[in-house]
Amino acid sequence: MKAVHRILLALVFLLVFTASGIAAQPEVPLAFADLGDFRLESGQVIRNCRAGYRTAGVLNKEKSNAILFPTWLAGTSKDLFDLGFIGPGKLADTSKYFVIAVDAFGNGVSSSPSNSTTQSASAFPEFTIGDMVNAQYILFKKHLNLDRLHAVMGISMGGMQAFQWLLTYPEFMKNAVSIMGTPSVTSCDLLVWQSELRAIETTQGAQEEDARRMKRLAPIHALVTRTPQYYVSRITPEGLPQFLAETEKALAKYNPDDWAWQLKAIMSGDIYRPFGKSAERAAGVVKAKLFAVVAQNDYMVNPRPSLAFAGILKAKTLELSSDCGHFAFFCEQEKIREAVASFLAN
């Protein structure tokens, strides 16, 4: 079952470092920026709002080498370091850049339904990808005294934030890298997210413990994060019950309300909305260079919108074709790292 266990850990963004051969990095301290009463795009307010973040690398004298790395669905800034995406020679190379990993609203670190003392659980206001980006902008301007970023890069929901940065603060960064993200969710994406959201919502008010509520997500989330070919070639029918049991155990650590609120943010993702749904009009605002990395077999985030917007911008793209699906960013990490390093250096 050792192989099954490794697959499971990748599926839930965890890694057993001794089993995989990747050494854990020294703990990078977590810091918080107090944003006060933060007004959302909806007009609602997150009371006593806080944004968590971690920094690594050295900011140069010109303050021109800063990179923002926002988090994915349910992910944390710690995950980005522990899974080897940030560090010397990594995707976000701290030997060259000053990297700021920012925890998104709803991940249980920054302000979330699970940690708010005044707006807990369903009382927590719903937020958007745009709200995440606006909070990051305040963090940089008021707390870190940064006026420009060399790049914004993100994976999955983090990639959606990278696209949002292109339109909301077009002159604040030089480059944007979206990996398995999308500028606008498709009907297929919405079908996936709605399935997960309904699985959570059906247990609201049922006095069911969080671990059992999250258990319902396991088959859905596993099904869309990789391709059928991936599972057929690696897990036997006899091994499936154990695989699902391990998946359920790993998902139990997440808070269902946090997960649901981030799902709602993802489902509302559409950078074209302020431009009359016109991708061409939106493209006219973009100042930064874009690099879009997609997986052809991504069943969680359809690659077509990213490729279409990159086409309008005549931007650089990388299409991955392995059977890892959405988690190609994990399976093909080295290939992506090399491509991103080349893009950022030019």
The coarse overall form would be globular
Mean pLDDT reading = 92
Separate helix tally? 15
Compute the gyration radius: what is it? 19 Å
Which range best describes the helical content: under 10%, 10-25%, 25-40%, 40-55%, 55-70% or over 70%? 40-55%
With strands numbered from the N-terminus, the spatial order across the biggest sheet is: 1-2-6-3-7-8-9-10
Order of helices and strands: HHEEEHEEEHEHEHHHHHHHEHEHH
Strand content: 15-25%
Q: Largest sheet, if any?
A: 8 strands, mixed
Terminal CA distance reads 44 Å
Low-confidence stretches: 1-23
- What is the strand tally? 10
Instruction: Determine the structural class based on helices, strands and strand pairing.
Output: alpha/beta
Break the fold down into its secondary structure elements and pairings:
Elements: H1 2-11, H2 17-20, E1 31-39, E2 45-56, E3 66-70, H3 77-82, E4 86-87, E5 92-93, E6 98-102, H4 129-143, E7 149-155, H5 157-168, E8 173-179, H6 187-201, H7 210-215, H8 218-225, H9 228-234, H10 240-251, H11 256-267, H12 279-283, E9 289-295, H13 304-313, E10 316-320, H14 328-331, H15 333-345
Parallel strand pairs: 3-6, 3-7, 4-5, 7-8, 8-9, 9-10
Antiparallel strand pairs: 1-2, 2-6
Helix pairs in contact: 1-10, 4-5, 6-11
